[in-house]
Recover the amino acids of this structure.
């Protein structure tokens, strides 16, 4: 199974993170009734741009399998919180809910 | 500040199957000086090739209006809605806390042209909803017809969760309207 993390601006589609294009040290797990993303990164331009748009994020996990269809999970960040910790060089994104979907189940 | 944007200066995104003219930052067009006007965040003039469209993707906290100018669009979402609309019909989707949908040109022969308009909602985290409304195209002639409104009343307009009304009108050459 191949797992991809994708974070984009929900309105303009601007890409912040795509683990297919560059290595991202991250973890995601359940927390406080939702899900917490922890991304290890230096405070750079991407972090600054993301924080400016922290109320409008689309966060995805794609799971691609050899023997079954790709499962996409979209996380509703809403008002987050979305924060950056300079001491730990850690970006945290909290999502209160999520929707899992199989793209192939929708007609084209 | 009000800035007049001429049609000629609009960015054009051409993906082969999609030719899109966004007024504000969208997709490959990113301009931090053009990210919306008031509550309007997206204003795309889209031309979609026959049988092509936008695969399953999410939206949240956005009022999304699709106005078909030519051809037919097929909308499908995880709320169970499957609707085909043509000229004379308007679709409104309130993404709220999250919705997954697709939009495709329902024709295998005719190009689809539609306006995609996104507005910030009055409040965030609303329950997602969708509706499609029809109007008689003849009512556009020399008039401003409300097709989406926060107070649709008996007008037949679609309900939007924001303080705005979208009017459509069709004017003959040299004809004018006073609003």
């Amino acid at each position: 199974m191949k797992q991809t993390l994708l974070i984009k601006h929900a309105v303009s589609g601007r890409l912040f993170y795509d683990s297919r294009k560059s290595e991202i040290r991250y973890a995601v797990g359940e927390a406080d009734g939702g899900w917490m993303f922890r991304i290890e990164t230096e405070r750079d331009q991407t972090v600054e741009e993301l924080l400016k748009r922290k109320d409008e994020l689309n966060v995805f996990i794609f799971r691609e399998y050899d023997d079954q269809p790709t499962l996409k999970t979209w996380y509703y960040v809403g008002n987050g919180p979305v924060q950056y910790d300079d001491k730990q060089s850690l970006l945290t994104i909290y999502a209160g809910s999520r929707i899992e979907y199989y793209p192939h189940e929708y007609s084209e | 500040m009000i800035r007049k944007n001429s049609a000629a200066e609009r960015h054009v995104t051409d993906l082969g199957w999609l030719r899109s003219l966004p007024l504000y930052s969208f997709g490959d067009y990113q301009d931090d000086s053009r990210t919306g006007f008031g509550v309007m965040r997206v204003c795309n003039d889209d031309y979609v090739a026959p049988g092509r469209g936008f695969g399953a993707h999410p939206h949240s906290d956005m009022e999304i209006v699709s106005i078909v100018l030519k051809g037919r669009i097929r909308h499908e979402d995880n709320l169970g809605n499957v609707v085909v609309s043509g000229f004379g019909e308007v679709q409104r989707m309130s993404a709220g806390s999250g919705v997954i949908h697709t939009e495709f040109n329902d024709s295998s022969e005719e190009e689809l042209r539609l306006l995609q308009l996104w507005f910030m909602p009055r409040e965030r985290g609303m329950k997602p909803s969708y509706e499609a409304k029809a109007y008689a195209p003849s009512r556009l002639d020399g008039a401003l017809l409300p097709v989406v409104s926060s107070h649709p009343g008996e007008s037949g307009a679609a309900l939007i969760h924001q303080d705005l009304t979208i009017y459509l009108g069709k004017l003959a050459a040299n004809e004018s309207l006073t609003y």
Notes: The CA atoms of residues 52 and 59 of chain A lie 16 Å apart. The two ends of chain A are 25 Å apart (CA to CA). Chain A has a mean pLDDT of 94.
